[in-house]
Amino acid sequence: MEKSGEKWGKGVKIMFLGEYRHSLDDKGRLFIPAKLRESLGKRFYISKGFDHCLMIYDETQWKLFSEKLNALSMGQKKNRDIKRFFFSGADEFNCDKQGRVLLSASLREYAAISKDAVIVGVGDKAEIWSAEQWQARDTAAEQMIEEGLDDLNLDI
């Protein structure tokens, strides 16, 4: 069974699913659940994301994302700012023997994670949220979905 980060088994793309609640320890380490560690592989990347969450990429997804960022022309201010935002707020990670990663102070500050965090799967990557911000986001999303499901035309 080949596991390259993009494919696992017979052409099945890795999917990051679920919601996991954990607390940072006193040193700022966060436990990454075994199910996610298995999909992420030994080396993975965490960067600043949208809506003040952190995004977790396996090696293949990070390579694809960084190639897109590097293709942006530095001649445009908007592109320079986008590249600075994502690359300055990213780091390579390996879990320790207990399955934890040390989140930098700047990443914790950006995501407003002081103690309780939620890791959520979002398909081809995962996100890390402060528990408070995730609760607010999840509640708002649920309401939006209930009100607008007819408009989405999903056959579910």
Gist?
With 156 residues, this protein is α+β, with helices and mostly antiparallel strands.
Give the helices and strands, then pairings.
Elements: E1 7-8, E2 12-13, E3 19-23, E4 29-31, H1 34-40, E5 44-48, E6 54-58, H2 59-70, H3 77-88, E7 90-93, E8 100-102, H4 105-110, E9 116-121, E10 126-130, H5 131-152
Antiparallel strand pairs: 1-2, 3-9, 4-8, 5-6, 5-7, 6-10, 9-10
CATH superfamily: Transcriptional regulator MraZ domain
Query: Could you please say which CATH topology applies here?
Result: Chemotaxis protein chec
Highest CATH level, the class: Alpha Beta
The topology string of helices and strands comes to EEEEHEEHHEEHEEH
Return residue spans where pLDDT drops below 50 for at least 5 consecutive residues.
Answer: 1-12
User: Using DSSP, what is the number of strands?
Assistant: 10
The overall pLDDT average reads: 88
Helix and strand composition category:
alpha+beta
Principal-axis shape: globular
Report, as a whole number of angstroms, the end-to-end distance.
31 Å
How many separate domains make up the residues? 1
Provide the gyration radius in Å.
Answer: 17 Å
**Main pleated-sheet profile:** 6 strands, antiparallel
Helical residue percent band: 25-40%
